Amino acid sequence: MTYNGWRNRETWLINVWFGDNWECVHDVENTMEFVEEEFEKVPTWVQDFIDGEAIDWDELRQHVRDIQKENERLEANK
After folding, report:
1. Domain limits of the chain?
2. pTM score
3. What gap in Å lies between CA 66 and CA 76, rounded to an integer?
């Protein structure tokens, strides 16, 4: 099942909250580290409600690569 065009709701939410600030794959990596660090600070009973393992970081990285390619194509056509 997909969610708003993304693999799942968790992946979609990461893009909603952080995706506008990504310019390169390294930005996705930084977000992944940040989310994992912050997740560890959440009480374990709250962690039980969140499926952090469901986030598809590969899909998010590919999304940034696709945007970069499209931007390069548009720039080349100016």
Report:
1. 9-76
2. 0.90
3. 15
Rg (CA), the chain: 15
Q: What phi and psi values does residue 3 have, to the nearest 5 degrees? A: -140, 110
Query: What's the count of helices (H) and strands (E) in the chain, helices before strands?
Result: 4, 0
- What pLDDT digit, counting tens, does each position of 14-29 carry? 999 999 999 999 999 9
User: How high is the pLDDT of residue 28?
Assistant: 98
Amino acid, single-letter form, for residue 34: F
The three-class DSSP label of residue 9 is: helix
Residue 20's Cβ-side half-sphere holds a number of Cα atoms within 13 Å equal to: 3
